[in-house]
Amino acid sequence: MMKGRRSRRGVGEMVEIGVLLFSCILVWNPSLTNADTNSDDVSALNVLYTSLNSPSKLTSWKANGGDPCGQSWLGITCSGSAVTAIKLPGMGLTGTLGYNMNIMTSLTEIDLSNNNLGSGTQSNQIPYNLPPNLQRINLAQNQFRGNIPYSISQMSSLRYLNLGHNQLQDALGDVFNQLSNLVTMLVTFSDQIYLSAWLPIHSMWDLSFNAFSGDLPQSFSTLSSLTTLFLQSNQFTGYINVLADLPLKDLDVSNNRFTGWIPNKLKKINNLRTDGNSWSSGPAPPPPPYTPPPVGRPTKPDQQSDGGGKSGIGGGGIAGIIISILVVGGIVAFFLIKRRKRKTFREEIFEQEQPFNPLDEPKGNLKPPPKIEVQKSFNQDDFQKTPVPKKTIPTAIKASSYSVADLQMATDSFNIDNLVGEGSFGRVYKAQFNNEKVLAVKKIDHTALPSQSSEDFLELVSNISHLHHPNLTELVGYCSEHGQHLLVYEFHMNGSLHDLLHLSDEYSKPLSWNTRVKIALGSARALEYLHEVCSPSIIHKNFKSSNILIDTELNPRLSDSGFASLVPSREFQASDQNLGYSAPEVAMSDQYSQKSDIYSFGVVMLEILTGRKPFDSSRPRSEQSLVQWATPQLHDIDALDRMIDPALKGLYPEKSVSRFADVIALCVQSEPEFRPPMSEVVQALVRLVQRANMSKQMFGGNGQGTSRRADDVGDFL
Question: Are 435 and 427 contacting, i.e. CB atoms less than 8 angstroms apart?
């Protein structure tokens, strides 16, 4: 009896000891417990920590894993399992923000002010993929360049924005339509710090002392609560009429390049500064045509009913109406006569097949037309002040101007020995300048430009010069002389993705799987920027592996962005170097769209996966078209093993390859409407990388890529 009791007691003691040991293990290894922090927030903070160059002063922060909420990471505020605020001002931080902060959907405040973010980095712009639900942003006192990211326009909850004391520039994007809750905005670059960051000023904006250029965006007119606006000492152009209906009490637009007339409503502002601009001195244009009030609503007190309740129109009113009708009829007849004369005159000009412009000088034997009555009805000075309608360059060119002589010297007169490539629009030469800087010069073929107009070329250059993204080739300069049209870019000595995949020799090292995923993700981000960040959006039209250049750190740089206007129709797609990239709808009807770019991106992903060209006439007929051959096999694991590039020699994670193939299958669907937008493609590739990193943490990794039999173990990014 006693023995049985001891036995049962012993079993109970063993259970208790086991529970105690398991608890100790959990305490000793907290990674086995459930973390308190949302996994997306953890991943984004891991990337942010790495992007900030892993500073030791950020105690508790980690590059992989961790529990920001449970472990009280420095500067992190949580609500439950969600990170709601990041506050790290004045920490001397360097680097930049993480690329995936947009997955932090609960983050409402970020304060990284008074640091050195953006300095000494390739990506020195404020990232566009910021958390979408932010209410307060403070990135002041840093080294950010570029412009205000377009993604801020989608933050309908944003109330406070401080980007002061950075080095922002470029045209001010039209990003204010949805910011109805924004009450404080500072983007000052002056030595004065306005107090709206600390005082409850209702609506104060400061954009002064930057290098912003271009016209004021139309979305300014939606800022119905704005009372104070400082725009002085920038390079803004155009008119300020968009500000006329705002409830402004303080306005400073001095020292810009504004033209036109100051609206009368703005002249009534007490604190108004407008000096240092090119205002028109002539008479202001007439107001818009008179719009009669609604029927039955009097416009003047003397038109209302009298005290006795009588109403009606007296004899004087009837006479007034008759006189008004006669006056209006006379005006209409006068303009009809003028219109008929103008039409007759236009017909005469068209018969001579010479365009007429009142400011043009006479050409050849063509005499200037006589000044007919329609011209005499205007002040002659008005012609001198009113710009003649013509095609103009929309914004300033943000690139250096080179002479033909400079580029000839740098390329040894475009010597064939300096030829590094030949694309769809011309040849590319390596250029060595006196300062030992090496650049790439693209010599545009005469046949590539729709016209030989230098004006068209400069407009193209202007548009390209405003494209800035870490995964785009950066335009350095241009040349437009003596009928020559050239573009100067950064030079990337690793060549193109096409070269690395298809022209490898015995001395070159094949691209690892990790590098291939890195190139695919960077290229996807470049297209995402063109499609979803640029306004208006840009269709590339010529996305292919030979247009993806590889820099010294094996990052992709998409070239030929902004060349869409030069892309011709069907014969362009039929050329040997473009075969296989065109979406079905382009091949059939020349209909380009974002979806056709996405199809081309899927084809490039297939190149990365298989090492094959999009079209290869040397292969058996059933395998010549890469998409037709590969698509039926993308969801078959065994088939994928046979399809993958033999150059990888089996060193790839099987699950990663499978997920990569899933993204390809979505992009190369024949129906455009079923292809995902580029933002979804980017997120799919980011998740692929995140899962690979998590697997590496669990199983360990040698950093060199592992066999497919080791599953997802690999070193990504």
Answer: no
Strand pairing category for 160-162 and 184-186: parallel
Average pLDDT, stretch 416-436? 86
Among candidate residues 125, 219, 127, the one with its CA nearest the CA of residue 175:
219
Mean pLDDT of 390-419: 81
Confidence class for position 35, pLDDT limits 50, 70, 90: low
Retrieve residue 198's tokens: 């600390």
Instruction: Report the 3 state secondary structure along 576-591.
Output: HHHCCCCCHHHHHHCC
How far apart (Å, rounded) are the C-alpha atoms in residues 422 and 576?
Answer: 13
Long-range CB contacts (within 8 A, 24+) of 410-416: 410/439, 410/441, 411/441, 414/443
Tell me the average pLDDT of the chain.
75
The span from the CA of 540 to the CA of 538, in Å, is: 6
- pLDDT for 174: 54
Q: Which of 426, 442, 446 is nearest to 477 (CA)?
A: 442
Alpha-carbon torsion, ordered 591, 592, 593, 597, to 10 deg:
140
Q: What is the DSSP letter of 496?
A: B
What's the DSSP call for residue 452? -
Encode burial over 12-36: b for 16+ CB neighbours within 10 A, e otherwise.
eeeeeeeeeeeeeeeeeeeeeeebe
Nearest partner of 128 among 472, 435, 407, judged by Cα: 472
Give domain 494-717's CATH superfamily. Answer: Transferase(Phosphotransferase) domain 1 (1.10.510.10)
Residue tagged 């407008």 (tokens): 274
Name the CATH superfamily for 39-273.
Answer: Ribonuclease Inhibitor (3.80.10.10)
φ/ψ (deg, to 5) at 182: -70, 120
The superfamily (CATH) of domain 401-491 is: Phosphorylase Kinase; domain 1 (3.30.200.20)
Residue pair 288/266 in contact (Cβ under 8 Å)? The answer is no
Q: Give the model's confidence band at 170: pLDDT under 50 very low, under 70 low, under 90 confident, else very high.
A: low
Q: What is the DSSP string of 544-612?
A: -GGGEEE-TTS-EEE-STT-GGG--SHHHHTSGGGTT-S-HHHHHH----HHHHHHHHHHHHHHHHH--
Sorted by where each begins, the domain ranges of the chain are 39-273, 401-491, 494-717
Sequence length of the chain is: 717
Q: What is the pLDDT of residues 512-564, one digit of tens each?
A: 999 999 999 999 999 999 999 998 899 999 999 999 999 999 999 999 898 87
- Asked if 577 and 560 count as a contact pair (C-beta separation under 8 A), the reply is no
Mean of the pLDDT values across residues 701-712?
38
Q: Which residue is listed with tokens 């960051």?
A: 197
Q: Which long-range contacts link 275-279 to residues 24+ away (Cβ below 8 Å)?
A: 276/232, 277/253
